[in-house]
Please model this.
Amino acid sequence: METKFRCDCPITSALDVLGDRWTLVIVKQMLMEGRCTFKDFVESDEAIATNILSARLKLLEKVGIISKSKPPHNKKTNLYRLTERGIALAPIIAELAFWSDQHLREFNPIIADTPEMEFLRQDRAGFARVLESNYRAQISDNSGVD
Model:
């Protein structure tokens, strides 16, 4: 699977990897919801099709945003983890959430309005740091999947 880039623009290059409908959803699910197996992703509310999920996971692994391993107690399951490159997307996830909160609520009134969203509204950079910190703690606490 070759990664093709359209041009030398850094924004376009990032969008060549991250700009489809599903890639940042997968990163968000890993970062914010603790999803780490194929089954976890398939069972999410976003309902990503299995063929698309497989393709996106392969791309994310190829470009070093996620890593894939086998948990020690289950050699059939793949365990997906964000790499440092993937964790570095936390500020982008925070900014997208903030933008959505500010500009899409009138079109999608069921957008979550939680204490986390209030924190995001007050301190986007702090919110991103908490996402990163919580994710790092989660992966250090959970070396495998139950």
